[in-house]
Amino acid sequence: MRRSHLQHSQPCGFTLLEVLVALFVLAVGVLGAAGTQATSARLRQQAALESDAVALASSLAARMRVNPAQMALADASNPYLQLKYDAADGVPSAPPVPCFGAATCDASQMARFDIHELERSVHDAFPGGRIAVCRDASSSGTLAWTCAGGSNAPVVVKIGWRSRTSAGTVPAEARPFVAMVVSG
Q: Lower CB count within 10 Å: N or C terminus of the chain?
């Protein structure tokens, strides 16, 4: 008595289709994990830049506070309030007087040296970095490079850079990410 092959048709092992479906699911999972890693790296870099910008703005605020002679000047004469640097303009020029260590610098020379040090830091630490110090009374909640303030508006330090967007593009101009009120 011969058995028919058709009677013994229980599935045995994986079919090629099942293997392909399993590989597809695995590939989708790996691509998802890779995308998550790339996004995580971009956000980690952005957070580090924001942290560095806050530290730099705090440093400038402290330097401005310990130089009351310059801060007491009219806005048009105050060198700190004239600070508008964009790394796209090139490497900052050397300070007129290096005020390191035992160097004797007056308040004006110290302000110019402070500004040089900040410009160099922005140039070196931030991709396409930019810094501005001005009086700004803007309360729109959106950071902008323009300053809307009169003589009674608070002094604000704004720092920004060109940051890669989630779409992977880099804008042509730096946008402000950090704004710190120095005095009000």
A: N
Q: Assess contact for 109 and 169: CB atoms under 8 A.
A: no
**175 CB-side CA count, 13 A:** 10
All residues at 6 or more sequence positions from 48 whose CB lies less than 8 Å from its CB, including other chains? none
Question: Edge to edge, what strands does the sheet with 84-86 contain?
Answer: 84-86, 130-135, 155-161, 175-183
Which of 3, 139, 145, 42 lies closest to 88, judged by CA? 145
- Whether the Cβ atoms of residue 174 and residue 158 lie closer than 8 Å to each other: no
What sections of the chain are H helices per DSSP?
16-65, 68-71, 107-125
Rounded to whole angstroms, the Cα distance separating 160 from 142 reads 13
